């Protein structure tokens, strides 16, 4: 499984609620040590014009010039430098998935970014940059975004509405399921997707495998570790059975270790990587 990662995707913004700008480096380190059948690939950055496939051109230039605050509420040059690489990583992973069946992008911080605004640790919406790139260039006719982050992908919805897309199926679990009581309904809703996609098959799935849906997450709380594994198994095995390419990313995850590290969150993402490999990677190592 190809994993799109570069140190250029990482930005250091100091101590912050969201570790999403530093998380790719930690997950990459864990993947390297894991022995899983993966191959790291450097993503190509997207251009300002490509970012503007999903955003107002004025907003894009204001962000990239540091004129207005990014999704972390600052104007960090380090974050600005990372942005073309994070959206680029998602786009590269999607293109690889179209070839290989599955691919991973070590990215977070997309789904609250709307057409002309940053929000909730999200600056540019790499999911929508990817979806609009693939649709407008004719690589695909129908994109499904399965957003299993704890939070509602309101930015994604905002951009879909702005452009009036009927060729993007957006299923954002954060819209409906919020507490541990919802776990059964959550997993049932996931299982239902297989019949929906059999009848109305997308050409690619972009899967946000958020770790903040974990019951112990300070900003989350629906699924246990075991139920999160079940979540990933349902999604990846459905994609495999239906032959739908799937590109997945990390999305949220805010648990902290006593020493302020993020090993618990990294371990949850590693479960997703392990399940993706076990379902998709054959003896050829993909
Ligand atoms: Zn979230």
Bound small molecules, deduplicated: zinc ion
Sheet bearing the most strands, described? Answer: 7 strands, parallel
Q: Give me the side-by-side strand order of the main sheet.
A: 2-1-3-7-6-4-5
Q: Classify the secondary structure makeup into a structural class.
A: alpha/beta
CATH architecture grouping: 3-Layer(aba) Sandwich
**Multimeric state of these chains?**
single chain
Number of contiguous helices: 9
Which structural traits does this protein have?
binds zinc ion, alpha/beta, 7-stranded parallel sheet, Arginase, Chain A, globular, 286 residues
Can you give a write-up of this model?
With 286 residues, the protein is of the alpha/beta class. It has one domain: Arginase, Chain A, CATH 3.40.800.20. Helix content is 43%, strand content 10%. The chain contains nine helices and seven strands; from the N terminus they run E-H-E-H-H-H-E-H-E-H-E-H-E-H-E-H. The protein has helices at 23-34, 48-51, 57-64, 77-100, 126-136, 154-163, 183-199, 225-242, 263-280; strands at 2-4, 39-41, 102-105, 143-147, 168-172, 204-208, 246-249. It has a seven-stranded parallel sheet, with helices on both faces. Helix 8 (225-242) links the parallel strand 6 (204-208) and strand 7. The longest helix is centred in the N-terminal third of the chain and has 24 residues, at 77-100. It is globular and about 45 Å long. Bound molecules: zinc ion. The site of zinc ion has 6 residues, from loops.
